[in-house]
Structure prediction request, 322 residues.
Amino acid sequence: MGVSYKELGLVNTREMFAKAMEGKYAIPAYNFNNLEQLQAIISACVATKSPVILQVSKGAREYANQTMLRYMAMGAVEYAKELGYPLPIALHLDHGDSFETCKSCVDFGFSSVMIDGSHHSFEENIAVTKKVVEYAHAHDVTVEGELGILAGIEDDVVAEKSSYTDPDQVVEFVEKTGVDSLAISIGTSHGAFKFKAGQPVPPLRFDILEECEKRIPGFPIVLHGASSVLQDYVEMINQYGGNLEGALGVPEEQLRKAAASAVCKINIDSDGRLVFTAKIREYLAKNPGHFDPRQYLKPARAELVEMYKAKNMNVVGSANRA
Ligand code: G3H
Ligand code: 13P
Ligand code: ZN
Prediction:
């Protein structure tokens, strides 16, 4: 038996994006896989009064179970109230790989889904996206599509090479599919190794973003692969036994610029992973006799809160928008 996201107290992304477009900021979309990440996201968003999109990847569903994650998101709605500030919270399927996956999330309480048909031909991408939109909209669930390929891992799909979004395709894609938002490829990529170490970081292709905006004015655009790969945490990981030499991400000022455009959703996963791992490594290195997970997860969670607060305030610009 299905369950509607409305019964879980969640919202879809429609109003969030309309306000973000109007206010020239972006909604943060943070991935979560466990309790501590979720608590940190909610604490930070309550503290900064920010709307938020909780993202669940295929990997997260395999790791934590889709039903568990859905009820955790429902818990997050109540947790925000308990912390003193009810938030607009969307539960979003990240990189849905098929109609069936998206349907299952719509049926079981997600308020938003992404159908990532970017690895298909243009025509097949349109066909599968349209099918998802028809089903999702019948349940008032919003849908994100994708045009162009980001390098890195998109769940099962590993793209060696990126291909930028072709602005000439966006109007046809948006009109034929009926999607609510569109992820585009302008030089970001997934993971912690986005650019070649030892070389200047190439700027994002704002020219492509502008061309897309011109063709679909006022339409919400999504940026994946938007972690900045914060160097303090990379260094901390390396200092305490890890090896992430050469990890590099998107400079925050470029994301700020994107957030002020039609980019209404900015996806951040890797930065959270880095913060969490860095603090756990540091704690365990300094406290070799400790073995209660609460001891090392607590400082990791606390640091995550600070990182998400900083993203909301200084990068995506969503603070005080809830
Ligand atoms: O888009 C990719 C996300 O960072 C999720 O990755 O499938 O390893 O959870 P994951
Ligand atoms: P990062 O790997 O840059 O955090 O990107 C996350 C993402 O796009 C999730 O869909
Ligand atoms: Zn992504």
